[in-house]
Amino acid sequence: MTHVLFVCTGNVCRSPLAEALLRREAAARQLAGVTVSSAGTGAWDGAPASEGAYLVGLEHDLDLSTHHARLLTREVLAEADLVLTMSRHHRARVRELDRTARVQLLGEYAGRTGGAEEVPDPFGGDLDVYRQTFAELDELIRVAAGRLTSEADATGSGQ
Q1: Which of 74, 121, 144, 158 has the fewest CB neighbours in a 10 Å radius?
Q2: What is the pLDDT of residues 52-72, one digit of tens each?
Q3: Catalytic member of 24, 29, 112, 121
Q4: Active-site hit among 14, 70, 91, 93
């Protein structure tokens, strides 16, 4: 079993979308051994998904209506086998809380280099900004799911 934790700032835009996308992708790939959650380095516990993330999710058949933000803590990190962050400062916060955590930027995990590893925060932007963020996350999650599939196959823990 592999538990993947996505981390952004408020846990209301990027990480809930990434969580929902990986859940869908894992189901499509029949990755039974993968569970997914999300948290934020500055989250207000219980906050709903942002309106932009909610609406863009609906455009792609992802329902974020039951999402509740949660703050990144040592306890949340203890549940995770792999932590994928949206930016370098999120990764730094993960390392402050748990030096042993397996943590990477989502973009790095998906093979991006040369400064394209971070996913920009759409918070406060218009719906088109959220659509761009969704498209970027969708691409990254597909690559990340492929890597998770390969890792599961290599360890015999897939399906």
Answers
A1: 74
A2: 999 999 999 999 999 999 999
A3: 121
A4: 14
